[in-house]
Write a structure and sequence with these properties.
Strand content: 15-25%
Bound molecules: adenosine monophosphate
Largest sheet: 6 strands, parallel
Order of helices and strands: EHEHEHEHHHHEHEHHHEEE
Helix content: 25-40%
Structural class: alpha/beta
Distance between the termini: 39 Å
Length: 289
Amino acid sequence: MKTLHKISDLRAELNALKNKNPELKIALVPTMGNLHDGHLKLMQQAKQSADIVVATIFVNRLQFGVGEDFDKYPRTLQADQQKLQSVSVDFLFAPDENELYPQPQNFYVLPDENLQGVLEGKTRPIHFRGVATVVLKLFNIVQPNCAFFGKKDYQQLLILKAMVQQFALPIEIFGVEIARADDGLALSSRNGYLSESERKIAPKLQQTLQQLRQQVLTTSEKNFANLVENSKNALQQQNSLWQVDYIKICDKHNLREIQNLENGVNTNDLIILAAAKLGNTRLIDNLEI
Ligand code: AMP
């Protein structure tokens, strides 16, 4: 695996390969590093669908709000390089801020408010603008045939799919299933912020979503408000360290909140999305119904 820090170097490498074989299929997997098995699953799926896999590591300031964890976000390049090598990634692009943002970035991709203004976007208003902007930039730098994103960040996946469609980008977007620890906790770089005792109770978030899913599937109650409220309470009553930001049942195609099962709503179209703080750490998770 070659690690490159400059846009020009990466382009030169990829152009040389494409000159030799114009049919070469390139997959892009953007990350912020501090890689875990969830990231590696993305790399492995990318490897199966393309000839060349380009992973990127860049902690993108544009997607962090004031008071969020940009400064303390874990940066572990050496360990990440070894992990990427172990799953046969071809190129790691790891630019610094000057390379990606030589001038302050003042052109943005502004996602549709219906997609970005809800769920995560309510608590993190500039987040998806920052994500879409950096991903478009990475698309332009790498010019991949396909790109892989995790369903762990479900809202992000939907926004990026919409971006590709709206700007007619010739890139196929793949969503990869959530990788979990044995106890069900969705893998995340931010899990490292949890104390030992917090880590023990963290799987309760996933368990709460499983229970809610079961209730939606079995109950005769058509109105979801009570079920959702009970789930929030169940989580917060487990331990006072939990503070629920949201638990919502949405249409998985457009993130519109679904309040009840009437008007021909099919449970196959639903997804439960949740965010909760455990102590100082904000966790997100979701479950398709
Ligand atoms: P991040 O480094 O957190 O920006 O994540 C980079 C990519 O990995 C994103 O597409 C995430 O959705 C994906 N990802 C992160 N955690 C997981 C996980 N547990 N399972 C699947 N994909 C994940």
